[in-house]
Batch of 3 targets.
Target 1
Amino acid sequence: MGNPRLEEAILDYLKKHPTAKDDVEGIGRYWLGDRKVTDYKLLRLTLEDLVRKGKLRKQRRRDGKELYSSGEPK
């Protein structure tokens, strides 16, 4: 199970940047930079929870990197 505070921060970021798309490390570094994320396993669990809830989309690139973006219809 993910972290509700991280979940809220991710969704807040996407409200301000609706076209943002990044991988787990980029989200921790850039989207949540002020939170000083150190537990990337918890961040990944939180992102997966948001995907299951339909609030985020996950896209796997050909190189295997997983990118997360808004789950809102465009």
Note: The chain has a mean pLDDT of 92.
Target 2
Amino acid sequence: MPPSLALWLTLAIIAGLFIRDFRGKPNVTSALWLPFLWVVVGPGSRFLSQWLDILGFHVGGVTVEDGSPIDAAFYFALIAAGLLVLRKRRVVLAQFVRHNRWLAIYLLFCLIAISWSDFPYVSFKRWIKLLGDPVMALIVLTEANPTESLAVLGKRCAYFMLPVSILFIKYFPDLGRYFDPWSGAPMNTGISTNKNELGFDCWILGMILFWHLLHVLKWERSKAKWNELGLGAGLLAMDVWLLKMAQSMSSLVAFALGSAIILFFGFRWVQARRAGAYIVAGIAICALAGTIGFMGDFIHFLGRNETLTGRTDIWRMLWNWDINPIIGTGYESFWLGERREEIQSVQPALNEAHNGYLETYLNLGFIGVGITVAMLFAAYAKSRRELFHNFEFGRFRLAYLISFILYNWTEAAFRLNGFPFFIFFLIAMDYRVAADHVPERVPEAAFKRPTLGFIPADN
């Protein structure tokens, strides 16, 4: 098929999917388009300046320290629009802090950490952008039905990101593929700019689609049910194919683990109150597998070696780097200036620690790591509590949290410009808003089973 014909066919498919979405009248407001744009023009694909470059508008002026003025203006506009939506919904900062203390402490410590950065202005700009993640997550959570809002957001992102990724890989290889700077091997990137980004797109969208399909199976028999199942299955098939093409083992394992947990908690004999016991049992089984050598065999089965594709060498080098171990180098400051150049002279193109906990240590020190761990425990407590009040959303929260924790062992996801961190904020936050504060509600909902909403937590 000629690339031009493939392009028009893809655009027609995307248009058809969105027309179907509009006709379905999901129980969400127009404000949900803000998180959609936040994902598809940035963390989940490419920045606005990169899309403009593809279209022939070469904006230039992009550096690691300063970024792109166009991107900065775009994200600032999205954050400002998001804050206006939250203000209209009467979201109160004090209530957010009260119900999300460790998230608030994390954001505050990142702000304080700007003061000891070698690049305070750059660090401050990145902190402002970080605020976009909780702002967009709050928009989803303050919808009339947060469970449906997450499903609609995931499907809308899939409508655009999955077909475009296939289009780029198969018909526009100069956009959808690249050669690894370390090994020289060809890699598939799809809509994103590297294979790991395509991988985490597929991991997250795949989990949302799988979770949504399991819920749709509970609908009453109808034409709408079978249509929704067919659409979801088609999108999930595209997602799995792209996950295979990405060859990102971290994302593949995270997707498999997260989906297995979602499925596991759907069995009638599984008791939500024993969630902690199930997790401990899972950890114990993994530890036992490691002692008998099974984990090594599993790593080889995934096509990797004991160094995890050189990651252990990177971890050793960065762990021994001369920084302040208590407070780190400052928020999002480690990979800047001469330090980045020195590291890349040894490891070309390296710009992350490939471990979220080590990445946090480099930027925020042991204090930052401690706050991050506390934030994860608080997220677990909320996810477990949600199983008793809104089971469907609760099992997704718990499944994503566990897969996110594992994913950060081989990739750095506690950072801005990342789809995984945005979804983490979404599942780690609690916020209850009165129904009359959510405008533009419509009576028809894709989720037929009623939910009870969010119960504020004290974590």
Note: Strands lie at 177-179, 186-188.
Target 3
Amino acid sequence: MIEYLIVIEKTETGYSAYSPDLPGCVSTGVTHEDVEQNMREAIEFHIEGMKLEGFEIPQPTTSSAYVL
């Protein structure tokens, strides 16, 4: 199973998220859990659309790290 990194940010009204490996794939949610679930669905929808249009599905290349 391919896993894509998502970045989740707090907003004034909840949370927003995007995936650096899938430009244009974004979502929002009221809670952290909502935005995670919404991004799962958004990624599936985004990839399905790319397949239908004949685009190559990008492999994940980003990573993350916390530093002090």
Note: The first strand starts at residue 7 and ends at 10.
